[in-house]
Structures are given as structure tokens and as C-alpha cells.
Design brief:
Blueprint (H helix, E strand, L loop, with lengths): L6 H10 L6 H8 L8 H13 L3 E9 L5 E7 L5
Antiparallel strand pairs: 1-2
Helix pairs in contact: 1-3, 2-3
Length: 80
């Protein structure tokens, strides 16, 4: 993990490690450590990590809350 990550971003990287997840799936796992975090905060952290080249948006979607499709995200260097 990058030393310039915030604690929230570091936790998100560890949650996503070796699996593909949507922001809502990340939120569900994140709330086990820090309850009541808004989805917008998770999405912002995922965007920051993507901009720094640590995460990658996949072309895969999953229908989740509110009937909306969400992209799956993965670690940049993880290939499967």
C-alpha cells in the first residue's frame, strides 16, 4: 500500500485486494470497521485510488441498490 494513502483509502485497498467489488460491496465490508460511512465517501476514495493508478474500473457491472448498475473495481496489478 502507498504511504500517501489516507487510512480510509488503505482500508479500501485491503478490502478490494484479490477480488472485484462494487462501491456498495466495499461499503458493506468497510462498515464492519467504521459504521455509518456514506457511499459518497467510499466512491471518492475509490476515485482517488484510481487516479493514482492503484485501482482499476473493470468493464463488468452488477445490479445493486436502487436497481442501478455499478462497475466492479479491482487492484491495478491483479489479473484474473
Amino acid at each position: 500500500m502507498q504511504s500517501n494513502c489516507t487510512p480510509q483509502e488503505s482500508l479500501i485497498l485491503s478490502i478490494i485486494s484479490k477480488r472485484k467489488l462494487t462501491p456498495f460491496e466495499v461499503l458493506e465490508k468497510y462498515e464492519k470497521h467504521n459504521p455509518r460511512v456514506p457511499i459518497t465517501s467510499i466512491r471518492r476514495a475509490i476515485t482517488n485510488l484510481t487516479d493514482r493508478g492503484l485501482l482499476e474500473k473493470t468493464p463488468n457491472f452488477k445490479v445493486e441498490r436502487y436497481g442501478k448498475t455499478n462497475h466492479l473495481w479491482k487492484l491495478q496489478n491483479w489479473v484474473k
